[in-house]
Amino acid sequence: MLLTIDVGNTNTVLGIFNGDDLAHSWRVKTDPRSTADELWLQYRSLVEDFEITGLSICSTVPATLRELRSMIDDYFSDIRVTIVEPGIKTGVPLLVDNPKEIGADRIVNTLAAHTLYGGPAIVVDFGTSTNLDVVSPKGEFLGGALAPGIEISVDALAARAAQLRKVELVRPKNVIGKNTVEALQSGTIFGFAGQVDGLVDRITAELLESYSEKPVVIATGGLAPLIIGVSETIEHHERDLTLIGLRLIHERNA
User: Fold this and answer.
1) How far apart are CA 24 and CA 21, in angstroms?
2) Cis before 62? omega within 30
């Protein structure tokens, strides 16, 4: 079975694939201070019931990636490992000014989105940051937009405003909040949905200048469920998009 690991700034998502099927997935906290041995102990407790025959990894956290390499040398030296980095075949042309700047997760999401839904496409990844990644009809990465993530924004507001605090992130009954909690929830949930819809509309308008069809819009990321029921432009929710992309890249490098 293939173990896929997507290391993000806030959370790490692991998935076990049996062929093309995702058998199980887990979401754990990312701690850049974790050593290779600590990572192994954490991951082993999750996957010990599965026979791991391959490993595919992408990471946006350099410190964790360094420790993952040590973990691989110590505990996975006898299986085939794919790490999404320069030199790995992804099949995703990067049509941007500096391809080295593009995070591995954005490349992986581009491949998965194009494989599952075709193109053009817009992937909205709700994580530590909110990423909008634009995919051409040929599966090329065209660029996109980056914005502060939902939790970062809420934390910053609570830290800088003396009379405001963190609240449970759920959709309020009304846009017009009748108290501070409802007002914060409204501004966060409806506000981020409006931000995404506005960016998607503007990106769509630019894409229509080059292509004859509107893009499909796919949401992913741990915070996507907060917004998908409110957004007017998101059409699909693919919770495991990055894990699927890691499987596809591992297969391309067989």
Assistant:
1) 9
2) no
User: Which residue reads 């819809």 in tokens?
Assistant: 197
Predicted TM-score (pTM) above 0.85: yes
CA atoms of 69 and 150, how far apart (whole Å): 31
- The H or E element that residue 62 is part of is helix 62-75
Q: What domains can you pick out in the chain, each with its CATH number?
A: 2-83 (3.30.420.40), 118-239 (3.30.420.40)
6, 31, 49, 105: which is the annotated catalytic residue? 105
- Convert the pLDDT of each residue in 217-234 to its tens digit: 999 998 899 899 899 999
Q: Is 105 a catalytic residue?
A: yes
* Residue 108 CB partners (closer than 8 Å, separation 6+): 6, 58, 84, 90, 242, 245, 246, 249
Give strand ranges (E) for 111-209.
Answer: 121-126, 129-135, 141-148
Yes or no: say if 120 and 218 are a contact pair by the CB < 8 Å rule: no
